[in-house]
Design a protein that fits this description.
Layout (H helix, E strand, L loop, with lengths): L13 E7 L5 H15 L6 E7 L11 H7 L15 H6 L2 E4 L2 H10 L8 E3 L20 H23 L9
Parallel strand pairs: 1-2, 1-3, 3-4
């Protein structure tokens, strides 16, 4: 976590973890955008939000400079640092939001059986979009980061709406 939360254990309703491959592009952008969307709706106090990657290649690094640049018009993600998903995350978080199908498969492979229901495809919360995955912009140009952010924005709004619906459970949809 970035330490920006002011919530207490009594107020947190959902612990969300955004996951991608290296935790320097999509998942930190999703963490930042969701945090901003929840804050704009006055609901940030209900969430503990973090992001992580499948690998530890970028451990401790700030998000990719292109991700930071693209995100800056929407949210500042410069204070985040990459980390690898750990087994404890499957216990600590209510919902693990994967950016693509490969991330889902990787998460399912390492998740304890009892925690697999917590893994969700992030874009499932934006069913009006034609895409299922947030494409990895790392090897592309700047337009890829903007496109990923557009998808992340739509999914963040849908996720927040779903979690705030009466009777909605974090791991159900």
């Amino acid at each position: 976590m970035t330490g920006q939360e002011t919530n207490t254990p009594e107020t947190v309703r959902y612990r969300l973890l955004f996951a991608c491959l290296g935790n320097i592009c999509r998942s930190p952008m999703a963490e930042g955008v969701f945090r901003r969307v929840a804050e704009e709706q006055g609901q940030l106090h209900l969430f503990e939000i973090d992001s992580a990657g499948m690998g530890d290649w970028h451990k401790g690094q700030a998000p990719d400079h292109r991700a930071q640049k693209a995100a800056l018009a929407r949210v500042d993600i410069s204070g985040q640092s990459a980390r690898k998903i750990e087994l404890e995350d499957f216990e600590d978080f209510d919902l693990i939001l994967a950016m693509d199908g490969a991330n889902i498969a990787d998460l399912q492979d390492i998740a304890p059986h009892a925690a697999r229901h917590k893994i969700r495809r992030f874009l499932d919360y934006a069913p009006h979009l034609a895409e299922d995955d947030v494409p990895d912009p790392y090897y592309g140009g700047e337009a890829g980061f903007d496109h990923a952010l557009d998808l992340i924005e739509a999914a963040s709004e849908g996720l927040l709406a779903a979690l705030l619906r009466p009777g909605e459970a974090a791991g159900e949809r």
